[in-house]
Amino acid sequence: MNKKTPLVFRDMILPFILLTTCFAAWGVAANMTDPLVKVFSKIFTMSSLQSALVQFAYYGAYFCLALPAAFINRRFSYKTGVLTGLGFAALGAFMFYPASQSMAYGYFLAALFILAAGLSILETSANPFVIAMGPVENATRRLNLAQAFNPVGCNIGVFLGAALILTQLNPATAQERALMSAAELQAVQTTELNAVMLPYVGMACVLVLIWIAVAMLRIRPAREKVVAHSREVHFRATLGRLLANRHYRFGVIAQFFNVGAQTCVWTFTIQYVMDALSVDEVRGGDFLQYSLILFLLARFAMTWLMGYVRASALLAGLSVLAAALCLFMIMSPNIYGVWALVAISGCLSLMFPTIYGVALEGLGEDTKFGAAGLVMAILGGAILPLAQGAIIDSYGSALSFIVPALCFLVVGRYGLFDIKNAERSIGLLAPATR
């Protein structure tokens, strides 16, 4: 790697720093949402499958809004996409207040959907925005650096969820709640749902401040001009090129299973810890916090390591290790299995941005719609936790981690595919030997 190649263009340093706050913001939202699966199952006395609809609403919105976000980016600019996403996300977060007053699970799902819709637009815009802020040769490393601030938000989100939500849950079991009078149960649920509402409304205020800061900056990456000069959108031709691109197509599949695995692991960490160690939700939340701290530290470490080791090789190796850790957890549902679960987050640290950056390589003018496809792949976070929740209801939390184990194997296969694809390309370009 050329040490003199700048990681970010000089005039993009301030916008790059500001965009990292957006990466942190959706980390806060995503990881405040993970504990809600367990929270709502207790408040409304639901099964794991029913409460997993939280993730279905959240990641389903990512799928639905990614393509409209691509049209916004193509027709206007990445900056417009970022502002639109921040606006919708703030609206959805503010909606947690009327949802808490209604005390209806469906209203919370609607608020989550709008929040995630905004984050989908934001993420579809911000990721390729960062890629356009510097030289193409270190785009994946630059995206990993920006994404390194996502786990900062993740840790804040887990802390807020544990400190402001989990600690406010009434210790009454489902059986004890069934014996309460209607007035007693409503009083308990009101306190718990207000605890859910507070951090989301606070986050909405922060999102508004970020929106104002982004709006005030004049931002136009030089590399965005390549695709921004044309106002016509030839969607059918673009879609045809993307579908014909095997490297990109496999990248979307890998991202689907990567996000599914990540969501499964973090969504059911509390459940696994509670079952393995016979502890309560608060103690389970502590281990989720440990996981996110490791995720944060590993993200910075992997960004540094990519200066020396090919990103795809790291992706393949850590995916296999994550799958092995899942199998160990299944066979050892005890304190050792819990620490294996924590270790998986270290493996997850580089997966999303690496798949994203590798899959977008060489797409040129199709990058904006290619980015949308990779964000739509986040649908894996909506579907696969439902499968894991169903297994938990029937066979317990330990065996359910076979779902992320299989997902990690798919991700690892993509890492190997990219390595072989690169070697094949080098072979074709190499001069013939006598």
TrEMBL record:
<dbReference type="InterPro" id="IPR011701">
    <property type="entry name" value="MFS"/>
</dbReference>
<dbReference type="InterPro" id="IPR036259">
    <property type="entry name" value="MFS_trans_sf"/>
</dbReference>
<dbReference type="Pfam" id="PF07690">
    <property type="entry name" value="MFS_1"/>
</dbReference>
<feature type="transmembrane region" description="Helical">
    <location>
        <begin position="197"/>
        <end position="217"/>
    </location>
</feature>
<keyword id="KW-0812">Transmembrane</keyword>
<keyword id="KW-1133">Transmembrane helix</keyword>
<dbReference type="InterPro" id="IPR005275">
    <property type="entry name" value="Lfuc_symporter_FucP"/>
</dbReference>
<keyword id="KW-1003">Cell membrane</keyword>
<feature type="transmembrane region" description="Helical">
    <location>
        <begin position="52"/>
        <end position="73"/>
    </location>
</feature>
<feature type="transmembrane region" description="Helical">
    <location>
        <begin position="371"/>
        <end position="392"/>
    </location>
</feature>
<feature type="transmembrane region" description="Helical">
    <location>
        <begin position="398"/>
        <end position="416"/>
    </location>
</feature>
<protein>
    <submittedName>
        <fullName>L-fucose:H+ symporter permease</fullName>
    </submittedName>
</protein>
<feature type="transmembrane region" description="Helical">
    <location>
        <begin position="143"/>
        <end position="166"/>
    </location>
</feature>
<dbReference type="InterPro" id="IPR050375">
    <property type="entry name" value="MFS_TsgA-like"/>
</dbReference>
<feature type="transmembrane region" description="Helical">
    <location>
        <begin position="250"/>
        <end position="268"/>
    </location>
</feature>
<keyword id="KW-0472">Membrane</keyword>
<feature type="transmembrane region" description="Helical">
    <location>
        <begin position="80"/>
        <end position="98"/>
    </location>
</feature>
<dbReference type="GO" id="GO:0015535">
    <property type="term" value="F:fucose:proton symporter activity"/>
</dbReference>
<feature type="transmembrane region" description="Helical">
    <location>
        <begin position="12"/>
        <end position="32"/>
    </location>
</feature>
<feature type="transmembrane region" description="Helical">
    <location>
        <begin position="288"/>
        <end position="306"/>
    </location>
</feature>
<feature type="transmembrane region" description="Helical">
    <location>
        <begin position="337"/>
        <end position="359"/>
    </location>
</feature>
<dbReference type="GO" id="GO:0005886">
    <property type="term" value="C:plasma membrane"/>
</dbReference>
<feature type="transmembrane region" description="Helical">
    <location>
        <begin position="104"/>
        <end position="122"/>
    </location>
</feature>
<feature type="transmembrane region" description="Helical">
    <location>
        <begin position="313"/>
        <end position="331"/>
    </location>
</feature>
